[in-house]
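The following record pairs a protein chain with its ligand, magnesium ion.
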Amino acid sequence: MRKIIIIKYGELTLKKKNKNFFIKTLKNNIENNLSNIPHETYYDFGRMLIDAKEEYLDEITNRLQKVFGIYEIILGYITDNRDIENIKEEVLNLISKKSFQTFKVSTKRSDKTYEINSMEVNKMVASYILNNIPNIKVDIHKPELDIVIEIRYNEVLFYFDGYKALGGYPVGTLGKGLLMLSGGIDSPVAGFMSIKRGVKLEALYFESPPHTSEAAKEKVIKLARKLAKYNGEVKLHIINFTEIQETILKNIPHEYLITIMRRMMYRISSIVASRIHAEVIINGESIGQVASQTLTSMKCINEAIRLPVIRPLACFDKTEIMDIAHKIGTYQISILPYEDCCTIFVPKHPVINPSISKCLEYEKLIDVNNLVYRAINKHEVIKVNLEEQKYDDIL
Ligand code: ATP
Ligand code: MG
């Protein structure tokens, strides 16, 4: 008998029509994640089995805990000997180290030609257990120990409870999004939450050298690398925002600096998003967090573009966001003290109820289209992987 990993899909199995696509995508994501560990994967609509040498099982389990679409990870046991006497012995062996007072045996036969039916196997194994372990009884409704026996064509599988994994949908099953990734606390969390819903991310960062440093950019690359654990490779688009910011600072009334700056960010994001075939923009805005995130501000900024903007953190408190940032390991990176392009140009009294007509009036003072296209044409793309960061200019 040897150990084997069993994965359950949970919510995935509810998506009737797309089931096949979801499960195949999950399998691909798992294979990518485990690509340097020798293993075999078998799957059907209910669950997936991962067979590998025992020495690799811990590492595999660790990695599977970062794969969205997996609901439960169970360490099971598998044997080639399907003889009922052997099944009884193996079960007894496995449970003799466990402490429990009530139990239940649930047998499934994927091989319906197996000579004993599932009910009979349940009864035979349960009475063998009762005869060999004192002071326990069967409870079919709420057993402390649920013993699952699965009779397959060439093997028998045994397992008990597993533990909860990340859940969510397999990355890529719900399309692509462009994450506006700053060096702050919020946007990596917003990214994580969208990946969880099956959205594959590319990211976009606005830098303003020399007002922002190389260290600030490194910080964003580090954050992208954390997201790559869940997303797979993250393509990080870097836009030089200096000319736009300096032009805005020179020409736009100060209380509208941030509003117009964010409308420019949205315009650029929306063009990059359509070029990479992303269906949405995702960002870390949260209602009321700062002046540019009042509902009136968000509406006014959003009116610069037509693409939908998903704001996973819209209704979260900062403390809730920080909790998630800690869990996904981005918090310590986000609090590093490097200037970000917004913090440099913060006006003393930003407008909290901007009007769209004022925005349009002020934007006549700058050459919006040319500024946007000049910024996009200079843009750089870095592929951020889990392993050593790889710089790779592809534009
Ligand atoms: P965060 O919100 O990530 O903590 P922040 O507080 O500096 O960073 P805000 O001013 O709250 O950012 O901006 C709201 C959102 O706009 C961010 O969550 C992010 O999605 C986007 N954003 C802000 N600055 C940048 C930038 N320099 N590059 C890319 N996206 C940005
Ligand atoms: Mg913020």
